[in-house]
Design a protein that fits this description.
By secondary structure, the chain is α+β, with helices and mostly antiparallel strands. It has seven helices and four strands. The chain folds into two domains: 5-68, no CATH class; 79-169, no CATH class.
């Protein structure tokens, strides 16, 4: 049994200012999970507000704040920006690698890494979310059955690897797999 918009608004306005500020703090930093957790914690027992209704209440707050919400900035995928970032790596770059990752906010995404030697390690080059991929690819991804994040990461990663004259490695370009084998020298 969900609450309609008017009931949600009435419930919201009945909250103490401190609680509203706490929830809005989570919303303004784009932490849906944090906001929902607080709403359920204070609303479940006295008002029967479960996760579904809490998400609707949080969504109302997202709509209220709109563009004022701090979104995570998107990584640049153009070769010039990636090459500039690679130039700042500590160590000699021996490969560019694309690896799958995922979370509850972004679903699957791909991280581009520069693998280094002397000292051995890895440096973050870019994170390719769905929105990043769509911006980078534009209309270019038509006809490719793979996820746009994989297509964009492979295109940007391969271009950087070619520019640096090092191998490019993407163990699972067709299917999200955060346990795919990593690059080995």
């Amino acid at each position: 049994m969900g609450m309609n918009k008017a009931a949600r608004t009435e419930w919201w306005e009945s909250l103490p200012a401190g609680i509203r500020d706490e929830i809005d703090g989570y919303i303004l930093e784009d932490s849906l999970l944090g906001a929902v957790r607080v709403i359920v914690a204070i609303g479940l027992v006295p008002h029967g507000i479960g996760v579904g209704t809490a998400q609707l209440i949080a969504n109302d707050r997202y709509l209220h704040y709109g563009d004022r919400i701090a979104r995570e900035p998107e990584s640049p995928l153009d070769l010039e920006s990636l090459a500039y970032r690679a130039a700042g790596c500590g160590g000699r770059i021996v490969a560019i690698e694309a690896i799958w990752d995922g979370d509850t906010v972004h679903d699957w995404f791909v991280r581009l890494l520069a693998i280094t030697a002397d000292p051995a390690g890895e440096a973050h080059m870019a994170t390719v979310y769905w929105s990043t991929a769509k911006r980078y690819l534009g209309e270019d991804e038509d006809g490719d059955p793979r996820r746009p994040v994989a297509v964009a990461a492979e295109r940007a990663g391969r271009a950087l690897a070619e520019y640096l004259s090092v191998p490019f490695h993407f163990a699972s370009p067709d299917t999200p797999d955060d346990e795919a084998p990593r690059w080995q020298p």
